[in-house]
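User: Fold this; tokens only.

Assistant: Input:
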Amino acid sequence: MTSTVAVEELRVGMYIHLEGGWLSHPFPLSAFRISSADEITTIRSLGLAQVRWVPEKSDLAAPVTALHAAPALAPQVPSLSPEEQAARAQEAWLAEQREAAQRCERQYGEAARVMRDINDNLAQQPKEAGRTAGDLTRAMLDKMLAAEEVGIRLVNGSGGDRNGAHALNVAVVSMLIGRTLGMSDSEMQDMGTGALLHDVGKLDVPDRLRHAEDSFTPAETNGYRDHVAKGVLQGHRMGLNAGALSVIAQHHEHADGSGFPMKLSADRIGLGARIVAIVNRYDNLCNPGGRTLALTPHEAVAMMFAQARSRFDPPVLNAFIRMMGVYPAGSLVQLTDDRYAMVVGVNSSRPLKPRVLVHGGAPALRGGGRGSGGGAAQLLDLEAQPDLGIRRSLSATKVPPPVLAALDPRPRVSYYFEALNVVSQPAELAA
């Protein structure tokens, strides 16, 4: 049961809900338990008169000025058997995961709408578009930096345009890498804004030249590469600072000097641009814009490590691979018990034990879960499974069609970040 309370009456221990959208406040989540007086000060600075709160999730009694009385104490629950306790714990964990997935989808959707606003305003209001890009970066960074642990979650990006989804993928993953490398707040702000806008020059390039093709003539290749210079010009129109402009200017440069347009070596490329170059390449392998065949996330990471190590800054490439994991979110895999699964979430600090959606088995992921055709889909946290792991990665053609229909991989791999709850899946019913 929720209640409402004036912001002047907020106290540490209250579990509250903030309205108005994810970008309207700096907290990692819109629903949380107040843990400090500083958080109360921040909430009061938002200009809200009152907020919703949940007495039963709070660590204190209701204040006398609450607009609705707190509910009566719940009757005592009869003691449960160990099996019943395990089943309830498992169901609670699954409900928490469903809520987290829905929250991440909402946050991604809100960010995608902001990206559309940026593109819509670019021609007539370039300065406003630039400010909006900076505000979106700031909102994502505030939440990313406030969380103790951050993970990468697979989201449904099919509702947005390809360019906006690509920009968000590159920005989110780049900022996560910057977080692990200890970049300063201002450096990450510049890199995030530049990453969101790294392909802004393609809006001034003919459609047929926006994605590189092996069949391009030299003139067509030059036309494609011209999007970098056009992007820098757009960045100046938008009022971007030097740090963000350098990311746009250098996101196709390579550490070995083989990139374009300036053929810069690693020591002349900014750290933000070195990061964005890696993530941009990865996303283009997974989500190609032209006629190139898409790679699976696992294949893309393997190719970058095996074939392109000289192109990229080694410490940054290693940080990228450690964070994404050997089996990044979106990978189709076979587990050590021979079941098929899809990786749906990776904890960047423990990437070898991702969360996977497994074909078959119980309990099923109900209420918003995927996989309505061909069998139940079970969500597992491999970190809670010491005897279960991933045997190999698979392409979609190697997965039986009924299983593929149940797992329902999206044609586009889209990512967003999430603040992770440290509570792990109960082991008793996970297998």
